[in-house]
Amino acid sequence: MFSSPPKTVFCILIFMCSINGRRHTTTPITVKVYIGPTRRTTLEKMAIKFCCFPKDPLEDTTAWSESIDKLLGCKSGQLAFQEFLRSEYSEENILFWLACEDYKKIKSTPEMIISANRIYSEFVQVEAPRQINIDCGTRANITKNISQPNLNSFDTAQRLIYSLMARDCYPRFLKSEVYQRILTKANNS
Ligand SMILES: *[C@@H]1O[C@H](CO)[C@@H](O)[C@H](O)[C@H]1NC(C)=O
Ligand SMILES: *[C@@H]1O[C@H](CO)[C@@H](O)[C@H](O)[C@H]1NC(C)=O
């Protein structure tokens, strides 16, 4: 019998800091750890706690260029895209999209109402701190219904922002220094 070869644990450490009482993530730091199968399980369990993901970085990061779905389908891809959008001052797009993804999974009505209002005041309303770029008809529809939100309240807006990211930001991401640096790192490992 022989043990399986050491697997790469692709690890993203997110450092939180507080700015005006809000949680902010700084640039994710990528750390690769090589460990054997027994210790791997323990480490993977620990890693999840710290937002680390056991993944093959080579396979993973090259797949990001196949489609925006592949990129947004994993936490490390979301973080890389977020870092890129931050550099373009359009981070609100991914933050809104992620907020909508979480919103749609909400199970309780009180939580849904609180969350809908938070998303509305952070991203949707005119002069919101992270106001997203949607047409005024869509914005008006959300505003009309914000007092009686449902799980589909942000669907139209989320779709619009998704196509905006897919059309405008994603092609630039693929050519960006952020993504090229990640690819180079993966190739050198
Ligand atoms: C706003 O809501 C109405 C009624 O549901 C719908 O017919 C219309 O297409 C919506 N407008 C936009 C821009 O989504
Ligand atoms: C507004 O809310 C009503 C009642 O919940 C719902 O039937 C309608 O589809 C909603 N409209 C929009 C644009 O979300």
UniProtKB/TrEMBL annotation:
Residues 1-21 form the signal peptide. GO terms for cellular component: cytosol; plasma membrane. Keywords: Cell membrane, Cytoplasm, GTPase activation, Membrane, Signal. GO terms for molecular function: GTPase activator activity. It is found in: Cell membrane; Cytoplasm, Cytosol. Residues 67-183 form the RGS domain. It is a peripheral membrane protein. Coiled coil: none annotated. InterPro entries: RGS (IPR016137), RGS_sf (IPR036305), RGS_subdomain_2 (IPR044926). Pfam families: RGS. SUPFAM superfamilies: Regulator of G-protein signaling, RGS. PROSITE patterns: RGS. This is Regulator of G-protein signaling 1. The lineage of its organism: Eukaryota, Metazoa, Chordata, Craniata, Vertebrata.
